[in-house]
Amino acid sequence: MAKRASPGKSWGMTPEDTPMDPEELKQVFRRIDLDSSGTLELEELETAARELGVRCSKNSLKKVFKLIDIDQSGSIDFEEFSIFFAKVSNPDRIKEVLSAASAAFLDYRNSVENDPCFAKHFPMPRSTKPVLRYNRHFNATVESVKWVGDGIFLAATGEGKLVSCDIASRADENLKTCAAGESVYCMDAHAGGRGVLVGYGKKTDNLSLWNMAEGTRLQTFEGQTSQIFSCCLGKNFTLSGSKDGMVVQNDIETGTCIRTWQVHEGLVTSIALASDGHQVATTSRDGRVVVFDVNAGSLPSCLVSDIEDAAAGYTVCQALWCGKDELLSAGDDYCVKRWDIRNQRDPPLASYMGHTSCVRSLALSPDGSLFASGAADSSVRLWALNPSGLRSRLTKTDDGGRVSDLLSELKQRREQVIERVHAGEGDPAEVRELTEEIETLERVAKDKTDEEIIDSAGYVRALLGLSGHSLTVGTLAWQDCAGKHRLISGAQDESVCLFEFNDDEVMEGFSTMSRQCSQ
């Protein structure tokens, strides 16, 4: 048999280049090589990566594995194993298998961890504290929070509590508590919905629909055979994502499995259903964001978009729809990105920088102009989705209305007058008056450029920082009411924080960050 080519030559590396202890590597290799064949396959390498504390997506592991497995045998020996871990343990080496755009985000992550001047380049945004902190009734990690009514939210804990609260009481009190069973991993609910969908960390009986008011189980869903880490309520169906990368669709009435898709090669961290009710965005530890159409059959025919290395070779924690063809994604490269799913190979449309740890959660404002992100270091940040035009959307008129709304109204009136002028019935002077009023309002709204919160590298900066937690913020939900924004955040510190702020406070944050970016 021909001698295998040395993998070290293609990397300019030898097994001695690994930063890990050789004896530790040998022990791990032998422990995982159960059949004593002297070789390991990709699935076994994932286990080894976890044991050695290597944080890298499965997609990146696959790319490195393919390059090291020169003879394409599907397995590697100990020498290749050593070189493999020298590669995946070194961020600079990981960059070699990423696109140029993804490599830039990895540089950002490395600067967070290693650059002592990082804070000068990415100043902290203006801070806002919660108006109320709920922590008396949870006694476990808050896995998910959802608004289910005007001022009423629902929280699910890892130990199986469903707790509803009304913020109108302005006290740490609950409306109702329901015991939904142990090991709750995810939850979805919405105002006027059919019930509360709960996913569990079990291999069987792992997805149920609950009646919160009566504290009873309405339906149990079949089809998933491993722990469920993400779930989503549709109009007539449910979706769930499991530890093994499977997404399952169930009929909400009967509980029967409608269809399954093997979407990912790793744990499905989030599922988001588009407003059209049939396009679905999923994220995973394999580092990808995948969009598919539940009405278009099986993969690959139903595939709409597949964004590889969406978190620069690390886990993607959540994706969120922010437009008909646009998504936000967040992950372990410490960044949030906005993508056009029609151009999956292109760099992101925008990049939002400033977090200093894994970004675990996202929430979009109802009007789509702002969003919030929560991270592993307990921080929450507020951002402008698209800084262009932000000032006109937030600046108020004398009567308290938004300049952007008044501008839209005036422009519509002008078009109507122009049509009447063309028909010989309108007054050209009215067109001129409306045009002057529109131009005046636009000058007020754009006294400074909205792009001031975009730094010289093109990265968008945060408008506000929302402080109140001490551990990972894994879930967020946004609601607007009577000109005020409401954001709730759930964390591993066994609490929910309620933040309230208005557009004027957002504008203050905008002005503060603009000054910092211009210095």
How would you concisely characterize the structure shown here?
This is Serine/threonine-protein kinase PkwA. The protein is of the alpha+beta class. The protein has twelve helices and 29 strands.
Which tags fit this structure?
519 residues, Recoverin, domain 1, four-stranded antiparallel sheet, 29 strands, 31% strand, disordered N terminus, EF_hand_dom, WD40_repeat_dom_sf, WD40/YVTN_repeat-like_dom_sf, WD repeat, repeat
Description:
The chain has 519 residues and is α+β, with helices and mostly antiparallel strands. The chain has twelve helices and 29 strands. It has a five-stranded mixed β-sheet with strand order 1-26-25-24-23, with helices on one face. Strands 2-29-28-27 form a four-stranded antiparallel β-sheet. Strands 3-4-5-6 form a four-stranded antiparallel β-sheet, with no helix packed on it. Helix 4 packs across helix 5 (78-88) and helix 10 (403-422) runs antiparallel to helix 11 (428-445). The longest helix has 20 residues, at 403-422. The protein starts with 6 loop residues before the first helix and ends with a helix. 41% of the residues are buried.
